[in-house]
Amino acid sequence: MMFDMPEFTTLYDALVARDERYDGRAYVGVTSTGIFCRLTCPARKPKPENCQFFETVGACIDAGFRACKRCHPLAPMAEADPLVDRLLKSLEARPGYRWSEDDLGAMGLDASTVRRSFKRHFGMTFLEMARQRRLREGFTALSAGDPVIAAQIDAGFESASAFRDAFARLLGQSPGQFSRDALLMADWIETPLGSMIAVSCRHALHLLEFIDRKALPRELAKLQKSTNGGIGFGRPDPTVQVAEELGRFFAGDNAQFSTPLAMNGTEFEQQVWTALREIPAGETRSYSQLAQDIGRPSAVRAVARANGTNQLALIVPCHRVIAADGSLTGYGGGLWRKQRLIEIEQSYGEAK
Questions:
Q1: Beta strand pairing status for 51-54 and 27-30?
Q2: Does 37 have pLDDT greater than 90?
Q3: pTM of the model
Q4: Can 201 be counted among the known catalytic residues?
Q5: What is the residue-averaged pLDDT of the chain?
Q6: In sequence order, what DSSP letters do the residues of 123-171 get, joined into one string?
Q7: CA distance 250 to 257
Q8: Partners of 335 in the β-ladder
Q9: Which residues are in the HTH araC/xylS-type domain (predicted)?
Q10: What is the pLDDT of residues 329-343, one digit of tens each?
């Protein structure tokens, strides 16, 4: 997109004014409703703290937001491509249907053509879009305290086993394994770089990860095993606080996080994670530099392992560690996110 996203205040003012100059050039996701809109949407305007702005429709969908039924932000893409229009209408008519490539073939459509078209317009395939929509509905229902069967119905799954299997693939455990009387509670947080899962007790944040991190199921299982009360659904104060701080971070307002943390690791791991938090936003370190910072210059590999076991993404900024030659190295949230986070934080470094 040949368009530099303005700062948060400019975009919010445009949203309030329904400024047509931004129509199709920026979109707003409303965290309190899970809906994304054009900036010209006629609906009542959300509070600033409930807004996240995105450059593309695909970024909104990838972050877990659903399209507004008043301003129809998907309409321009549909109008530009009859194939997209047809499938979006089919998805709207059958939001709970478990779509497959066989269904596309039955409609006389070539699966590879559909895949390319949706990737071009939204950055994801049609099947991925349909799956995200269904799972998000189920997670929202569970977070609201609905029973599993109600969440299954909201997510459009015909059987409880299918819903449990899909949920388990995403989070590593079925809905029934989440405790009703849990000490730890999980909730969904939307960010411009994708959906995240936060797990908190009443006093501290224990986990914050992007939902597509491969280690997430293992990390949740470890937390589940270590906690007598297991994990449930909900949003304790630390989750509320970190969601607000993430909003300010991505809006370019503040790179500081003061949410109380529970850093569950060995003494050495906690030493590394503390050193990571001391790296200023806008700066990076190599693994060898980090090892020197903690007084263990020969422990470079151990530092790298501790970096990889961090389960508090962004808050404990392991993305600020790069290779000695300046190249990006492994990041559980994906190298594209690591690059984007470093780019975002450069503006904080320049503001010093």
A1: antiparallel
A2: yes
A3: 0.59
A4: no
A5: 81
A6: SS-HHHHHHHHHHHHHHHHHHTT--HHHHHHHTT-SSHHHHHHHHHHHH
A7: 12
A8: none
A9: 107-181
A10: 777 777 878 888 888
Active-site option among 41, 60, 68, 318: 318
pLDDT reported for residue 89: 83
What domains are there in the chain, each with its CATH number? Answer: 8-67 (3.40.10.10), 74-156 (1.10.10), 267-350 (1.10.10.10)
In this structure, how many other beta carbons lie within 10 angstroms of the beta carbon of residue 226? 10
37 is catalytic: yes
Please choose, from the candidates 238, 227, 126, the residue with its C-alpha nearest in 3D space to the C-alpha of residue 173: 227
37, 68, 71, 201: which one is catalytic?
37
From the list 114, 170, 112, 115, the residue with the least C-alpha distance to 137 is 170
What's the pLDDT tens digit per position in 143-173? 555 555 555 545 555 555 666 566 656 666 6
Instruction: Report which of 271, 276, 273 is spatially closest to residue 286, judged by C-alpha positions.
Output: 276
Burial annotation 231-266 (CB, 10 A radius, 16+ → b, else e): bbbbbbebbebbbebbbebbbeeebebebebbbbbe
Q: CA 122, 31, 34, 146 torsion: positive or negative?
A: positive
